[in-house]
Design a protein that fits this description.
By secondary structure, this protein is an alpha+beta fold. The protein has 5 helices and 12 strands. 19% of the residues lie in helices and 29% in strands. A hairpin with a 2-residue loop joins strand 10 and strand 11. 8% of the residues are buried.
């Protein structure tokens, strides 16, 4: 349901900007081998795509290799370089390069090392799925489709509890300038796709 609402919002935004849109399911996108183009159900060439389907899954699909072949001809939103920043292995690399940095949490690949309280996260997980939170108060885990055996172990950053909710602030920065902020509130320490979301400020 959340995905449908997000796509509908983006479609409405594009239409208000004067762009023509067409909604299509990922499995319905075709490949025209004669012209080396992605096409819709009417065999019209697709030049711009907004998608929520993860890149790492797309590249494993039957026509995944064509994503790279057409990288200059098709504008994908989000772009493929976002794969690097969605991989939580980067957190462990940053900690290795800058241990003790004030803007980083201790993070390791393969195990918690000396940490007794930590969060175990899949490298390519999303929306609070397949998370294990271990603290002095016990252990909590969530289910999901991302448990493939590759995880990072990150130090716990305690979230203040306000009226049985745990708020987390998300911010957007564009070219070094703050451009928006949103607040997510979950009923537990693990923020999931059922959290309440309130946009606080957008510019």
């Amino acid at each position: 349901m959340e995905d449908v609402i997000t796509v509908t919002y983006m479609e409405d935004t594009a239409q208000q900007a004067g762009l023509k849109t067409k909604r299509i399911l990922i499995p319905d996108i075709g490949w025209d081998s004669a012209t080396n183009c992605f096409v819709d159900l009417d065999e019209k060439v697709i030049k711009t795509v907004f998608k929520l389907y993860p890149w790492e899954m797309m590249l494993r699909d039957e026509f995944g290799s064509h994503m790279l072949e057409t990288s200059g001809a098709v504008q994908w939103m989000e772009p493929i370089w976002k794969m690097m920043f969605s991989n939580k292995g980067l957190l462990a690399i940053l900690w290795e390069l800058y241990p003790g940095h004030a803007n980083l949490l201790e993070t390791h690949l393969g195990g918690p090392e000396k940490m007794t309280e930590y969060v175990k996260k899949p490298l390519l997980g999303r929306e609070g799925a397949n998370i294990t939170l271990k603290t002095a108060h016990g252990e909590t885990s969530t289910s999901g489709p991302y448990g493939d055996g590759r995880y990072v172990y990150q130090a716990v950053a305690p979230i203040p509890q306000i009226k049985s909710r745990y708020p987390v602030i998300g911010s957007w920065v564009i070219d070094g300038e703050a451009a928006g902020m949103g607040i997510r509130e979950s009923s537990g320490m693990i923020t999931d796709n059922l959290s309440r979301f309130v946009p606080h400020r957008f510019e």
